[in-house]
Specification:
The chain has 382 residues and is of the alpha/beta class. It has a single domain, classed as Rossmann fold (3-Layer(aba) Sandwich). The protein is 34% helix and 17% strand. It contains twelve helices and 14 strands. The strands form four sheets. It has a seven-stranded mixed sheet, with helices on both faces. Helix 4 runs parallel beside helix 5 and helix 7 crosses helix 11. It is globular.
């Protein structure tokens, strides 16, 4: 499939007065002028491998926390949060006619951040989501206890009459309780942004099932998700030393990530025997994960690789049932962005690579057949 043309800002995103009311008022509503050329399951183009890391200048929240240590980030993290901000701003406007809107942050992270290359401060995902207008009416933030105090500070500042829950601990253990407090009719966006591979498949499945019965009976959409998949982490964990990986119990961690055994083990074997090169194996791990999302019933899957000059770090995978949501995320990910560099007099937006669909039929291109999944039993797991 050929490269797509650059996506311009949809006219409907430029004025809140132009949002059109949909017959599906509890879901993302359709937008006048929104693109209709979205390719379902559009994925990673090879041209990303050599592209520069783009970022967008984040319109700013200038909150400061007394005594809070700021975490330094490189340009790729700044890029990711700028795409996130573009999307959530569009999401709440698109769902403006809904009575409720919900946001879930499985790894809410640091609330005070600084860009290493320029020293600029920027807010984290939780603060961006709490500050957007119209507001999310229900917010669930997850983080480990030593970071959760700052989330409570954000809740006190932005919460008001909204339902804002701060869940201290492992999101895999706490998600089921948090979802009980979220309305199933609300358009819901979940940001899954772990440092590595901590978010397990059972959590992804819980999110997909949260609105499933309502969505299928009323022709609505499930929870939308933007998920960090660590291709770099998979390459390191399942590298060329099988004995070392097994000694560290890393296959168990991978099985929890995918929610099963079988296909990823065959890809690993192909990597160990030389049937697949390291880059081919990393791509196969990603596409296999997207297969799992497709099995959950998601119609639109977009993959956005993030890398440095050393290579690919991870891929952000977007999963949605909504044509409008998919189009908005495609616009946000492909729009021109500024590449942050030190000692630059002028910042100029740079063009982004366009998507190719390499997910469809990818299994047929493998030199071997993948086995069926053997589902992981979390209850009896060590």
């Amino acid at each position: 499939m050929g490269a797509k043309q650059p996506i311009a800002m949809p006219p409907a995103l430029q004025s809140s007065a132009t949002w059109a009311k949909s017959t599906q008022s509890d879901d993302l509503i359709a937008v006048n002028g929104l693109l209709t050329s979205l390719v379902p399951r559009a994925t990673l183009a090879e041209s990303y491998v050599t592209s520069l890391v783009p970022v967008a200048k984040i319109r700013g929240i200038e909150r400061k926390f007394e005594g809070a240590a700021m975490r330094e980030w490189k340009a790729h993290s700044y890029e990711k949060i700028s795409i996130f901000r573009d999307y959530v701003e569009a999401f709440v406007r698109a769902s403006g006619n809904a009575f409720n809107r919900a946001y879930i942050d499985a790894c809410a992270g640091d609330t005070e951040n600084v860009l290493k290359v320029t020293g600029e401060r920027f807010p984290g995902s939780a603060e961006i989501a709490l500050a957007v207008q119209p507001p999310f009416t229900h917010v669930a933030l997850f983080e480990l206890p030593h970071k959760a105090k700052r989330l409570h500070t954000l809740k006190a500042q932005y919460g008001g009459s909204r339902e804002v829950g701060v869940y201290e601990g492992n999101c895999n253990e706490l998600m089921i309780a948090a979802l009980r407090g979220l309305p199933v009719k609300a358009p819901t966006f979940a940001f899954i942004d772990p440092d590595g591979m901590e978010v397990e498949w059972r959590t992804i499945r819980l999110l997909a099932d949260h609105k499933r019965q309502y969505a299928e009976s009323q022709n609505k959409t499930k929870v939308e998700m933007w998920i960090l998949f660590s291709t770099g982490g998979m390459g390191r964990m399942l590298g060329s030393n099988e004995a070392s990986a097994r000694a560290a119990n890393l296959p168990e961690k991978v099985a929890r990530l995918y929610g099963g055994w079988g296909p990823w083990e065959r890809i690993w074997k192909a990597r160990l025997t030389g049937e697949l090169k390291p880059g081919e194996a990393r791509l196969a791990y990603l596409l296999l994960y997207m297969d799992r999302l497709e099995e959950l019933g998601y119609r639109y899957l977009l993959a956005r690789p993030v890398h440095t000059t050393r290579g690919e770090l991870y891929v952000m995978v977007f999963a949605s049932d909504s044509t409008a949501g998919g189009n908005i995320m495609q616009w946000a990910q492909q729009k021109e962005r500024v590449v942050k560099r030190a000692d630059v007099l002028f910042e100029m937006p740079e063009a982004r690579p366009q998507y190719d669909d390499i997910h469809t039929g990818w299994r047929d291109q493998l030199p071997f057949k993948l086995p069926e999944w053997r589902e992981y039993n979390y209850e009896s797991a060590p």
